[in-house]
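Quick one, tokens below:
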């Protein structure tokens, strides 16, 4: 069980530190023989907006090396330009571009890059139907520490991950997030050491796929997420 407690000002400072401490390189300065790895995340929901994220790197799975798209390079999600290092309440660490869509059920990422005097457009897709749904039961209003709570939807498959959190976004001066533990049968989650009070419960089902259209030989990834949120009381 991981618990992190940060003052809001410290959280903001951490975001800024994360931004400026990355090893950032402009794409227009890259030699033509350097391939760019694409990393995307799409979070679908029935009750919340569709969230999109992107990150580009000259090396795979190196978190503090990133590429800023410059010199004619760009990234679009469903025809809209994604924002570079824009932080809000939905920010997911590890990604440098983000964009909140409406209730879009499919997302097309179009990555444009100039390489060897040629402008290439790489397109990768994510569909809501590709990932199983997960819903917090409407009747769930209170939970207790170490109590296993379930959800509406399939259990977490062996190729999936679950992220469950309890946080208090309405108290930004003393923001706290508690992470839950998936049970052995992979159909429930429990929390411990959570003080009494009101929290936002978030469940995320996560599935990782490979990108199909790549800046060869760099093979990237798309993380598909289905998420749900609900206010609950810890008793």
């Amino acid at each position: 069980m991981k618990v992190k407690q940060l003052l809001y000002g410290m959280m903001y400072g951490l975001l800024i530190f994360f931004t400026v401490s990355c090893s950032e390189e402009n794409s227009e300065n890259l030699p033509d023989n350097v391939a760019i790895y694409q990393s995307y995340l799409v979070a679908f929901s029935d009750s919340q907006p569709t969230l999109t994220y992107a990150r580009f790197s000259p090396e795979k799975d190196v978190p503090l090396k990133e590429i800023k798209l410059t010199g004619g390079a760009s990234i679009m999600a469903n025809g809209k330009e994604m924002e570079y290092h824009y932080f809000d309440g939905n920010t997911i660490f590890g990604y440098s571009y983000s964009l909140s869509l409406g209730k879009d059920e499919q997302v097309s990422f179009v990555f444009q890059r100039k390489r060897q005097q040629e402008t290439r457009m790489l397109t990768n897709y994510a569909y809501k139907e590709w990932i199983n749904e997960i819903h917090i039961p409407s009747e769930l209003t209170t939970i207790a520490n170490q109590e296993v709570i379930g959800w509406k939807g399939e259990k977490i498959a062996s190729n999936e991950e679950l992220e469950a959190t309890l946080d208090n976004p309405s108290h930004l001066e003393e923001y706290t997030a508690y992470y839950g533990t998936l049970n052995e049968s992979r159909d429930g989650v429990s929390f411990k050491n959570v003080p009494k009070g009101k929290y936002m419960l978030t469940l995320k089902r996560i599935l990782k796929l490979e990108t199909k259209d790549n800046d060869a030989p760099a093979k990237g990834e798309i993380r598909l997420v289905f998420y749900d949120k609900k206010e609950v009381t810890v008793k």
